[in-house]
Amino acid sequence: MTKSWDATSEHLLRELAPQVLGAVARRFRDFSAAEDAVQEAMIAAFTQWPEGGIPDHPRGWLIQVASRRLTDQVRSEIARRERETAVARETDTVVPAVEIEADMDPDDTLILLFMCCHAALTSSSAIALTLRAVGGLTTVEIANAFLVPEATMAQRISRAKQNIKASGVPFRLPSSQERSERLPAVLHVLYLIFNEGYASSTGAHLQRLDLAREAIRLTRSAKGLLPDDSEVMGLLALMLLTNARRAARTGPDEELIPLDKQDRTLWCQAEISEGVELLTAALSKGSVGLYQLQAAIAAVHDEAAHAEDTDWPQILALYELLKHVAPSPMVTLNHAIAAAMVHGPSKGLELLRALDEDGRLASHYRLDAVRAHLLEMVGDYQSSIKHYRIAASRTTSIPEQNYLMTQAARIAEREPS
Amino acid sequence: MKYIIMMNTMRAGHGIPEWPQKDLQAHIAFMIGLNKELRQSGEFISAEGLSFPEQAKLVRAGKDGLPVTDGVFPESKEFLAGYWIVDVDSPERAYAIAAKVSAAPGPGGKPLNMPIEVRPIMSGPPPEML
């Protein structure tokens, strides 16, 4: 008896993808070829299941289809070699028999995650490969999500696999020491996928895959596999607490709405509660890291019913911690904003001077945007207009540029020079 | 991050059709090879070549909103000959591709050293996080 295809089926299929890939890669000892075969099996399922129904043993079905593809490939490869060397061999002894539902290992998904987020890959390759091999997405879906041609995405994935092959990573779970060394790279890839989705999925691109949701799904699965890691929990909390505000973040014409002007009734309370709960559990484990601190900051914002209720001293304290745990010019910039909210705009402007000297953010639009905002707060309108305009000329985001130009125009109309 | 790499040719010196066959072929092969390379590196978004400036028209709306066209624009010294849109990991990589385009072989196989304009392509809203 088969089940019929419904809204949850696509989800089921994607959950199965890494498990199937794990089983096939383990059996054939060739990650790259196994990955291609699983992709073909996934495409076959996407075309056949909605009409014919979901097989009784979907995982077994996928393993079998993928294995058959690989077996055919191995056979023709052997046949080719035989023709070349004229050595007769019984091909079937080389091809492993397919045992449906056999050798299922819960660690497979974790192995894949570590493999795809390997330091040997550039972040764009790691992102693409993770979405396909662990996320169970098709190349077309990933290509559309990143607005690149399918052939380009296919090439990126195939190069990523070549790099993995060349780096000689075996298909096994890294040791616990290796794991803790490599985990930050894994979390960073998941974080980048989320950011890509959060940043770009607005009205005009509704037909695109929701990468933020995919990142949450992948991180949720990573949390299931590494239940004791507080940073995995912190990252999931950060994603939920940020995603909760998504509906309020842009207006009907995709214009950006800053945090203090957002309609907070649009924030997703379910995501906020889950995020806060996760964060509380993570913090109780005692080792506070980068993602937990960012999540804590997001939680403070999310818990304020009105912008005026925001607990800025708390946010300032968290940024001070973050400056110790993970110093970066962006942290310094956000720290300056929090300091301005607590101690007044002059204090914020004073802290920005350190960034001018640092140089790394000196020509970044956000430094000018923050400076413009603080200059308006101290009443230096002409300088504020100037910095809003510089920021507008430096950003590469259209909604951000529109927002910054509008700010400059608003002040210029009110305070003519 | 996506960049557009624009290849400008000097109007006076564009006379590609007058190059010796060998040089012309080397130039064409270079461009085909470059596109192939960008496809293989997984960075290619699109590329187009534009017609020679002889076919260009300058259009403005007249008082009735209908198009008023001029012929070629004699005052322009440089013309956009073609462009690539690439998706790369860093601005430095975009500049490296541009330098390659700039050194496309010209007459006698000598690098043309064309001026190449590189500009980031605008995107959607930025991430809010660090």
Task: Describe this structure as you would to a colleague.
With about 425 residues, chain A is an all-alpha fold. Among the domains of chain A are: about 10-95, no CATH class; about 105-130 and about 150-170 and about 180-220, no CATH class; about 230-310, no CATH class. In chain A, about 70% of the residues lie in helices and about 0% in strands. Chain A contains 20 helices and no strands. In chain A, helix 1 crosses helix 5 (about 110-115). Chain A is elongated, with a radius of gyration of 25 Å. Chain B is about 25% helix and about 30% strand. Chain B has one domain: Alpha-Beta Plaits (2-Layer Sandwich), CATH 3.30.70.1060. Chain B is flat. With about 130 residues, chain B is of the alpha+beta class.
**Number of structurally distinct domains of chain B:** 1
Classify the helix fraction of chain B into a percent range: 10-25%
CATH C-level class of chain B is Alpha Beta
Q: Can you tell me the CATH topology of chain B?
A: Alpha-Beta Plaits
The ordered H/E elements of chain B are: EHEEEEHE
Strand order of the largest sheet of chain B: 2-5-1-6
Question: Can you tag this structure with a few keywords?
Answer:
heterodimer, A: 417 residues, mainly alpha, 71% helix, elongated, B: 130 residues, alpha+beta, Alpha-Beta Plaits, four-stranded antiparallel β-sheet, two-stranded antiparallel sheet, 2 helices
Q: How do the helices and strands line up, and which of them pair or pack?
A:
The complex is a heterodimer of chains A (417) and B (130).
Chain A: H1 9-28, H2 31-52, H3 58-85, H4 91-94, H5 108-116, H6 123-134, H7 139-145, H8 150-167, H9 176-200, H10 211-225, H11 230-243, H12 246-249, H13 269-283, H14 290-302, H15 312-325, H16 329-343, H17 345-358, H18 365-378, H19 381-394, H20 398-414
Helix pairs in contact in A: 1-2, 1-3, 1-5, 2-3, 5-6, 6-8, 6-9, 7-8, 9-10, 9-11, 10-11, 11-13, 11-14, 13-14, 14-15, 15-16, 16-17, 17-18, 18-19, 19-20
Chain B: E1 2-10, H1 21-40, E2 44-49, E3 58-61, E4 67-70, E5 78-87, H2 91-102, E6 116-120
Antiparallel strand pairs in B: 1-5, 1-6, 2-5, 3-4
